[in-house]
Amino acid sequence: MSQKTWKLLGLIMTFLMMTLLGGCSAGDKVAGEKKELVFANFRDIRDLNPHLYSGEMWAQNMLYESLVMNTETGVAPWLAEKWDISADGKVYDFHLRKDVSFSDGEKFNAQAAKLNIDAILDNRDRHTWLEMVRLIDRVEVVDDYTLRFVLKSPYYPMLTELAVTRPFRFISPKSMKDGQTKNGVTAYVGTGPWVLTEHKTDQYAVFTVNSRYWGAKPKIEKVTMKVIPDNQTRVLALQKGEIDLIFGKNMIDADSFTQLGKDNKFEAVMSQPSSTRMLLMNTTSGPLQDLRVRQALEHSINKQGISENIFNGSESVADTLLAKTVPYCNIDLKPFAYDVSQAERLLEEAGWQKAAGQKYRQKDGQALLIKTHYNSNSALEKTISEYIQSELAKVGVNLEIVGEEEQAYRDRQKAGNFDIIFNISWGTPYDPQSSLAGMKLPVYGDYYAQQGLKDKKALDQAITDVLISTDETKRQNLYTYILTTLHDEAVYIPLTYERNRAVYTKKLKGVTFNPSQYDIPFEKMYFGQ
Asked: What is the DSSP code string of 473-487?
């Protein structure tokens, strides 16, 4: 064979190899197994300090671990292999794993763990939403791999709250500022299966596998998050193959979720009900000071219509503040049925009359005007607000809807400056204990909304008592009293039970949901055929 022929064959072989490999992306192996997952989030990851609250929880969950974890079957070991609890429920000894390092090589041991807990407690006022923080008396190093918590009183949700995404996760002592984290950290270094390797604010973030990870390493080697604020743009990115996954409660609208679920290129799955979508009524505000008016609003809203017309049935009707599947919440409460005539009767009893030719009711020359505020970044809240506005107009209530930028909206809620505002329960694993504990504090809308209740002090005391109770019967009785009081006083209008949603390319496998609605379990995902 001539030299010219050999050269021609070489060129042909080179071309064939380039053709075969051309379909492999940078994240793919030569064999074609995809190793990079790309997904969309509506905003940047922000500050991932695990001891503060401005970062994306799914990202913090990728980097940082806790002593224990919440699972479908209860609390399980994590960085602690086991634990002992004293007979009086006040002392917890955690026996730590001995094979764990932070991703910067720093050893994880009892000293590093204590440094983290002390940093959290040094900023105690920031964490008062957790009753546990107020009850921790001190933390001690028993030996290199035994950490002791001493509480002022028993606290039954102790393990559950240690396991939630923040603040009780561990960051490398090298990342702290003078042994503290309340004023920021120098790097986001944890013990988790991922490390943050690249970040461009408001554009993307890249996470890769932690080479020092003590546990089973994820099958996917790289997770890239793209910031795509717009709902429809996210859907188009998935359809075009620019992303592999959309994940979250409000990341995709019901219609798009349904349509993509019918497309054989994608899978669309939902979690079990995770939290309650609701409206919060301020019992100190104008007409809402009257229980009869609040009850009338409860009867005026067709929740089945919201479930079917807005969510395509993907979110079921919520009859009570917390679903009966939530621990301690399977109690006998009579739901407020959709009943326009009952609503009108209650409004008339409260003195709100509707004269001939008038659209809205009046009392003492004043129209029945109530405002509801929503986060203008949420197209869903706007849609629900408009639906409820039309419902209340049927009984003569003028509902004015006001959209606000997210921070202003949250500030309004925390200041109690509202008539009606959107709210959600905290969801698993925070319900019922954390959702109720937060009601006692002037940092959430619940506290201010409940100030008009004559039994507010008794309610707060019952919440305090239920969290430190060691008797199951007493605990159930207290929860029954709390939930019954809030229901009968019509402080909340439960709308639907929320579900997490995931839509993804069919080649992505292992997509599931953790007990916490805020986690995205990337470590369980992989690509297959």
From this structure: HHHHHHHHHHHHHHH
